[in-house]
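Lab notebook, bench 4. Still working through the backlog of constructs that have no structural model yet. Next entry is a single chain of 196 residues. Request: give me the structure tokens for it.
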Amino acid sequence: GDELRGIARASEDGPLPLRTLHLLSVRLQAAGACAEAAAVLRSAWLHHPGDLWVHVHRAECLSHVDGREAEATRHWAAAAALRPACMGIGRRLVAARRARGDEDGASRAARRLATTLYAAGRDAEAVEAFGLARTDEMARDSFLLAMAQARLGHQRAARAALARGLVRIEEGEPRSAEVERRRAEAEAALAVGGAR
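Model written out:
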């Protein structure tokens, strides 16, 4: 414990190799020294700001340190930006925002994840990600969800999602070229039994 903390303090004096910082942070976190692990990872982050795993591990450490939840959320957001189609990172970002009381931010992150997964053809994960959004879905999201459900062969769920989108438009949600395109694609997908 004390030896690891001494190495962690020394890492603040000058940059150590990224792998060394990562291993040190893992050992510190395993020893229950999450604040120290986060400090070690701060050095890694300053020298490697675009490294996905630095953001993931720093977010994980900070989420266990009282009063550092906002910083943890920012690192989850950075990780999600670096790996937008990663379901695990997306889930953690949604959970972090929700834990901080930011339901709208959590739902936006869930929708962004779902849209990315849908575009990648990962329909089951897209449906799951849409389910993480608790605020009302927009018509565009309903149409994407309808298409994902149709491609999975879930016709009843696909028709329900399409109907929700149509209701949103009838209720006055602004129409855009993208919404109209997604609507036409969803209607076509259901008309031919789920073909894209």
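Notes after review: The radius of gyration is 21 Å. Residues 150 and 194 are 4 Å apart (CA to CA). Flag for follow-up if needed.
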